[in-house]
Amino acid sequence: MYRVMIMKGRDMDERHSIAEARRNLPRLIREAEHGKTVELTRRGEPVAVLVGRRMFERLAAGRRGFDEAYQDFARTFDLPELALDPDELFEGARDRIPGREVRL
Question: Which residue, 17, 28, 53, 55, has fewest beta-carbon neighbours within 10 Å?
């Protein structure tokens, strides 16, 4: 089975069942190395995507960690000027009912 699909403006990529991918893994890896995106399916449902290392690094580079995102936020907004009170802001967010009794 070889089906061609279009993914978000990219050139045509491949879609294979996991069983097909096992039989054709070396070829699929070469294609991923050359920029193709290979979608893997189980019982017709997409479950994974095989991409080359360069593509993975490009995709992963776009992700920021929490600390970096928070620092950007703190530079953009004057936090003291916002005068946010965490106790007031999150009041009612947590259930104050004690949990079950635990015997040790």
Answer: 53
In words, the CATH class of domain 3-59 is alpha beta
For tokens 């946010």, name the residue. 84
Whether residue 33 contacts residue 53, with contact meaning beta carbons closer than 8 Å, is answered with yes
CA–CA separation, 33 vs 3, rounded Å?
19
What are the extents of the domains in the chain?
3-59
* Residues 63-83 pLDDT 10s: 788 898 889 888 998 888 888
Q: Are 39 and 5 in contact (CB under 8 A)?
A: yes
Read off the amino acid at residue 25.
L
Ramachandran angles phi, psi of 12, nearest 5°: -65, 135
In this predicted model, what pLDDT tens digit does every residue of 36-73 receive, in sequence order?
A: 999 999 999 999 999 999 989 888 887 788 898 889 88
Q: What is this structure's pTM?
A: 0.50
Sequence-distant (6+) residues with CB within 8 A of 71 are none
